Amino acid sequence: MPTGVALRDVRRQLFDAADRILLRDGPSGLTSRAVTTEAGCAKGVLHRHFDDFDAFLADYVLDRVERLVPEAAALRSAAGTGTVAGNLTTALTALFGSVAVAIIALITFRDELRARLRHTWPAGVPVLTEAAEMIADYLAAEQELGRIPAGAEAQTLAAMLIGTGHLLFADRTGTPPDEEAVHRMVGSVLRS
């Protein structure tokens, strides 16, 4: 790879390259060489911006968690519109249809990454924890509007939706569940 080539927004280019590799090759295919090759830059570029590869991965995961913020706001603003099951189906399909499932596998796959993430993320699994909070916040808003029973536990329902949704989408090599399958799952959890 040529050196001395000016790159714009190196972090974004490297993170986007990591997305593509994770989706295509899974966590075992994600190496510093693979990332820089996919991004079209010299390997040294990654090491000029990050202490080591696990520091890159930790920043990458946290960056992808931050991407859930607008999704959470959109879901929260959907409270009172459409159907609760429909809104949750859309949110879960978008969440698990993204690179999120592959990031969860990456966190599980790399011990050093998990250790580094514990410094800024002391509990739970990044992406899943944030997604559960997003769903619980939405359910609480729907509960305030009377569209979810007053006695329902929003946090528990959110955890059930995230866990079951993750199981539906976990096989990244197979065909992802269709919208109807996700909607059935959401309806089952909401009725529980």
Automatic annotation (TrEMBL):
Q: Which PANTHER family match?
A: HTH-TYPE TRANSCRIPTIONAL REGULATOR RUTR, MYCOFACTOCIN BIOSYNTHESIS TRANSCRIPTIONAL REGULATOR MFTR-RELATED
Q: What is this protein called?
A: Transcriptional regulator, TetR family
Q: Which Pfam families match?
A: TetR_N
Question: Which InterPro entries does the entry mention?
Answer: Homeodomain-like_sf, HTH-type_TetR-like_transc_reg, HTH_TetR, Tet_transcr_reg_TetR-rel_C_sf
Q: Which segments cross the bilayer?
A: 91-109
Q: Which branch of life, at top level?
A: Bacteria
The UniProt keyword set, sorted, is: DNA-binding, Membrane, Transcription, Transcription regulation, Transmembrane, Transmembrane helix
Which PROSITE patterns is this protein grouped with? HTH_TETR_2
The answer on whether this UniProt entry bears the keyword DNA repair reads no
Q: Which GO terms describe its molecular function?
A: DNA-binding transcription factor activity; transcription cis-regulatory region binding
Q: Where is the HTH tetR-type domain?
A: 8-68
Question: Which residue numbers delimit the DNA-binding region?
Answer: 31-50
